[in-house]
Amino acid sequence: MSKQLNILFVSSEVEPFAKTGGLADVSSALPKAIKDLGHEIRIMMPRYRFISERRFRLHDIIRLKDIPIPVGDAVHAGNVKSSFIMNLKEKVQVYFLDNETYFGRDGVYQNPANKKDYKDNDERFIFFARGVLETLKRLGWQPDVIHCNDWQTGLIPVMMKTIYKDDPFFRNIKTVFTIHNMAYQGAFPPESFKKSGLPEEIFHHNGVEAYGKFNFLKTALSYADTITTVSEKYAREICESPEYGAGLEGLLMARKKDLRGLLNGIDIVTWDPASDNFIFRKYDAKSVEAKSDNKKALLKRFGMEFDPARPVIGAITRLVDQKGFDLVLEVLEDIVKLDAQFVMLASGDKETEAKFERLHKKHPKHITLVFGFDEELAHMIEAGSDMFLMPSRYEPCGLNQMYSMRYGTVPIVRATGGLDDTVVDHHAGGKGTGFKFEHYDGGELLKAVQRAIAAFQKPDEWKKLMRNGMAQDFSWEHSAKKYIALYRDILKP
Ligand code: ADP
User: Which residue has its alpha carbon closest to ligand 1 atom 2?
Assistant: First the structure.
């Protein structure tokens, strides 16, 4: 039996405590899957005020009260609370670093009232990085690996290699840094650097500075022992072009041998059409006919007419530039002309919402829009649509295309990042699970939709596509094993 590993997983959002995007899902599902493989993994995150003490039964770890944590010239007191998340077999322990000044707020990164980033996000995550390391020392728990995620945890590796360089507690601990999205870098003015307590000599282009700023993501990429991102294709894309690498492609290229793409999994319990309580009628690969009742129920909810021969195209998304909905706006009327119905659940950008709204007014029988965040409706759309649209400009991994395949809903995606790695084009013959287009172009998107509609009109061909998708295994176990192999690799003497 090989040695059990001890891992600390650090993230600024973890489901069900705090979530702004896919990071929260990964930060709970991956540690659970690793624990299931028999390793000791614990999570550390900030204790935002909205994380309810009662609901989650947070308790103080008494011995750790008031750890002094320096930020700039001040010293702030951190204390640590603890709770658990449940997995199939065991619990995963979660530590919350608590400090009223920095985390006693209603938002994660932004003030929910004005949707503006908090002005002291630099200090908040300097405090967090330093606090994580100080907490470990007080706990006396020495992991083999600290696994950091996104820029909010980006200073942990560099602090270990500078401030704590001579501290025997950290000497044998390795760091892994996972990039969930290159677009969010945590770039702050140079003055922020002084608050970090890091040695002055590393504020240069080969250290923590990028384009004149103190860049937390770059810092992580420079100092982590190894780097991962959430799909193989995205790992290549971010090295190869400024568009994907967001200005850090040179550094990524230089560290290419330390960069790996490990695909995210999905939560196969929450997203399972055979046991999904949100949907009108449950089904599996053997009873896909029942999907049509879900389609009927979805259309009825929005007063749309049901016709089995008319395809319903679903979309669930944040309306941000990354997701490619400017292409959809370009060709939606052409899609309507093909007599397809479009149901979209989206949150974000008011301007884009208004543009979609105008198209809905013109084609109310074919276009339904719901703006907001709605977990239940997301499940209903997955179950009730025939096709699912993800025309992303870039997509580190993407989850909805995997949910779609599990629900027998055939994805139409741009061949980028995780979308390209998880969807097999119908052209590939008998193994196809969806439709892909290469170039970021409205015409190409429309062609992919036309191909999908042509296949939809041949029931046997369509059923095969659905079944192929439903047979895929997107569980976390696969990826968790790959992470364990990676941890073992970097721990080799
Ligand atoms: P990202 O993290 O870039 O938003 P992912 O595809 O990795 O994209 O994850 C998005 C997650 O958020 C999915 O679980 C998706 O179903 C969910 N989601 C996105 N927008 C909405 C919405 N408006 N309502 C409900 N769920 C949403």
Answer: 22
